[in-house]
Design brief:
With 119 residues, the protein is mainly beta. The protein contains one helix and eight strands. It has a six-stranded antiparallel barrel. Strands 7-8 form a two-stranded antiparallel sheet.
């Protein structure tokens, strides 16, 4: 479970193409250094599992299903990604409760803009 509030941004250091999807190497901002192997981490809104840690870099796997159902298929080396650690039962909820698991795909048909935002 996540709050939906971005805790920091990481940089995509490497994208490895694999038979069963991709593996991303992400730099971790200083505020998220307590991420552990096996932790769930929200990357651009999708719940992923930390499969490797090496200093300030974590690696997460993207299954083919994740690539088909999220915008993570468009991620390239050098891109920035939004990161959020999973909630602990003792955490304050400063946002919403979201699972980070994709249930479907939607498309925006229209966006009435105001500045750089949509309403």
């Amino acid at each position: 479970m996540f709050t939906g509030i971005v805790e920091g941004t990481g940089k995509v250091m490497k994208v490895e193409f694999r038979e069963q999807g991709r593996r991303l190497a992400l730099s971790v901002p200083p505020g998220l250094t307590d991420v552990q192997l096996g932790d769930s981490i929200n990357v651009n809104g999708a719940c992923l599992t930390v499969v490797e840690i090496n200093r300030e870099v974590i690696r997460v796997d993207l299954s083919n299903e994740t690539l088909q159902r999220t915008t993570l298929s468009e991620i390239r080396e050098g891109d920035s990604v939004n990161l959020e650690r999973a909630l602990r039962l003792s955490d304050r909820l400063g946002g919403h409760i979201v699972t980070g698991h994709v249930d479907g795909i939607g498309r925006s048909l229209n966006c009435a803009g105001k500045g750089t935002s949509c309403r």
